[in-house]
Amino acid sequence: EADIYQTPRYLVIGTGKKITLECSQTMGHDKMYWYQQDPGMELHLIHYSYGVNSTEKGDLSSESTVSRIRTEHFPLTLESARPSHTSQYLCASSGGGREKLFFGSGTQLSVL
Amino acid sequence: AQSVTQLGSHVSVSEGALVLLRCNYSSSVPPYLFWYVQYPNQGLQLLLKYTTGATLVKGINGFEAEFKKSETSFHLTKPSAHMSDAAEYFCAVSGDTGFQKLVFGTGTRLLVSP
Lengths: 112, 114
Hints:
The structure holds two protein chains of two kinds.
Chain A lengths: L3 E4 L2 E4 L5 E7 L5 E7 L6 E8 L2 E4 L7 E2 L9 E3 L8 E8 L7 E2 L3 E5 L1
Parallel strand pairs in A: 2-11
Antiparallel strand pairs in A: 1-3, 3-8, 4-5, 4-9, 5-6, 7-8, 9-10, 9-11
Chain B lengths: L1 E6 L2 E5 L4 E9 L4 E7 L5 E7 L5 E3 L5 E5 L4 E6 L8 E8 L8 E2 L3 E6 L1
Parallel strand pairs in B: 2-11
Antiparallel strand pairs in B: 1-3, 3-8, 4-5, 4-9, 6-7, 7-8, 9-10, 9-11
């Protein structure tokens, strides 16, 4: 079944740790996205990718980085986590043009 | 540039009552408009979308929305609320033609009481 997966679902980690949030999709979509969501706030696009070896920063500045080595995989990395990084991170993918986004279930990150 | 305003961070209705969630948008190009729903501890799911053509759009779970260009609105409605409709609803606009960069509103939490 075609889907988009994010792991871990919840992550609690100490300040200064390096973390990687995983995102994989089985739909063969070229375009993938990372959104950041805080309670009561709109979702903000922080990274997106047109395809393999293509990544761009989104509308909201983020200290995280992403990579796209394989079509199905779009991990997000924080080299040194801080409490200000506490948030929900949503991964999404889409087919061509202005088609709808498919979202993963999100990773709730808490940095102590 | 595109933006979305959702009026009301919380909307409370009784089961069986009309649901109305408001969304106004701003776009410098003909917009594509979306409503997404987020249930607790889940990702966003597409309810419905407007691209071109018919301005009244029907989605899943009995929801519909009407695109009104003159009012720059895309309000979401459902004639009769169910308890299972309790969730957070996000309106979004896409103005880019070559890439799906959605701009989301702040969301409206729908509360349904028995």
